[in-house]
Amino acid sequence: MPRITRQISTGIPALDDVMNGGFTADRLSLVEGYPGTGKTTLALQFLLDGAKAGERGLYVTLSETRDELQEIAASHGWSLDGIDIHELVDQEDLHQKQAQYTMFEPAEVELGTTIDRILRRVETLGPRRVVFDSLSEMRLLAQGPLRYRRQVLALKQFFVGRGCTTLLLDDKSGDDLHDDNDQHLQSIAHGVIRLEQELNHYGTERRHLRIIKHRGRDFLGGRHDLVLQQGGMKVYPRKTIESLISQPTGETVSSGNAELDKLIGGGILSGTSTLLLGPAGVGKSSTAMQFSCAAADRGERAVFFEFEESQHSMLTRGDGLGFPMRKHLESGLIEIRQFVPGETTPAEFGAKVRESIQPDDQGRRVSVITIDSLNGYLNSMPHEQYLVIQLNDILQSLNRSGVISFLIAAQHGMMGQLVRTPVDASYLADNVLLFRYFETFGEIRQAISMVKKRSGAHERTIREFNLSDRGIEIGNPLRDFHGVLTGTPKYTGDGENLIDRRGDGR
């Protein structure tokens, strides 16, 4: 019975997850992509990971000098002291040999010399991990697809026979020599990773990674976002790869406001998502802040993912409402993460959300997540497709982890007819809290109602909603309302049931 070959880390944890363990040990893999997509960075992380594990690594470079590689490593804060670098670019030696060639083409002789040097170096050092950078020079020296394929096959047999896990880097230059170069290489390699880059109409360029082939192994297919930053390559899988942190307890979580709890049927069930829907400025974000502060008061963590409001504005608003946002921010029980439009990818956002719910150093878990706002999320990535599907995957992951998630969605309009929601509420949300403005006795007031709750009963009344220095105030049920769901509510009752804004509100 054939033995199962072990997997070794790529040096990038998320890429290991995508590949279901990493590269197959003692096999040859291909990393292909145009210049600037991150091939060298990935290769160096692979070798550095091996060096940490005590495995000798060899970087064979045909295209870059030792100094250039060390500069790349230094830009990430790495040292290549534990990695052997074998340069094959020796301009003085190359000119001397070219002067001696009379009967043979220089390239024909140079290819054999190049391969011989590599083999001798590997035999001398006995490395466990090898990077060959890059195949484009070999392709040019071969001057034909048949000879090129034979040389790659010879390299594969040599490395595999010596227990080397090998990465061949291909920058795809010279593909005009033969259209089938990609297929030749991919058929030979045990695994194939393709790095891609594209420029968006707005914002920074977008980089992707795809696993084209991973022989004998399961892997997560599709395009995964990646970012090149100081410290190396970071990969963001396109969908959730998780081990459950916790299971929903089925408990009902209080908002910390007795009247609000009464309206929504006692609280929000853990592991559910809630859409806070209404026009701008009506109090949606403040309601999410109420739940978050209540969670922090219980010693649980809450995280805001902000696409619109600045941290300064949030804290100022919290001060005005009497919410202890600053205290909880300093203690780490509340966290605010800002996102810049055009600089974030869907998979990167999803990874940051899932990362945020990991218990902190003190073992405190996250119980409330707020995405503010859904409109900002959709507008910050205008070049992307299927954002709502990806958001649903994120919410399902949060639900399985027992986290309460709030989505804030602004509808256009203030007092007039309101247009439909930016997304299908029934697809994303288990619960829907509806906020409205209404006019009565010469004043603009706010109303709140629970229009959907999958997990249990709730009031079907409409209550007045008010924000003051005492926080959120919820009035008595107002039964003399008409037209709330159409977006133009009218209150026809008297003023006895309205919140008295001149006094203490009681």
From TrEMBL:
<dbReference type="GO" id="GO:0004674">
    <property type="term" value="F:protein serine/threonine kinase activity"/>
</dbReference>
<protein>
    <recommendedName>
        <fullName>non-specific serine/threonine protein kinase</fullName>
        <ecNumber>2.7.11.1</ecNumber>
    </recommendedName>
</protein>
<dbReference type="InterPro" id="IPR010624">
    <property type="entry name" value="KaiC_dom"/>
</dbReference>
<keyword id="KW-0418">Kinase</keyword>
<keyword id="KW-0677">Repeat</keyword>
<feature type="domain" description="KaiC">
    <location>
        <begin position="6"/>
        <end position="249"/>
    </location>
</feature>
<dbReference type="InterPro" id="IPR030665">
    <property type="entry name" value="KaiC"/>
</dbReference>
<dbReference type="InterPro" id="IPR051347">
    <property type="entry name" value="Circadian_clock_KaiC-rel"/>
</dbReference>
<dbReference type="InterPro" id="IPR014774">
    <property type="entry name" value="KaiC-like_dom"/>
</dbReference>
<dbReference type="InterPro" id="IPR027417">
    <property type="entry name" value="P-loop_NTPase"/>
</dbReference>
<feature type="domain" description="KaiC">
    <location>
        <begin position="251"/>
        <end position="488"/>
    </location>
</feature>
<keyword id="KW-0808">Transferase</keyword>
<dbReference type="Pfam" id="PF06745">
    <property type="entry name" value="ATPase"/>
</dbReference>
<dbReference type="GO" id="GO:0016787">
    <property type="term" value="F:hydrolase activity"/>
</dbReference>
<keyword id="KW-0597">Phosphoprotein</keyword>
<dbReference type="GO" id="GO:0005524">
    <property type="term" value="F:ATP binding"/>
</dbReference>
<dbReference type="InterPro" id="IPR003593">
    <property type="entry name" value="AAA+_ATPase"/>
</dbReference>
<keyword id="KW-0378">Hydrolase</keyword>
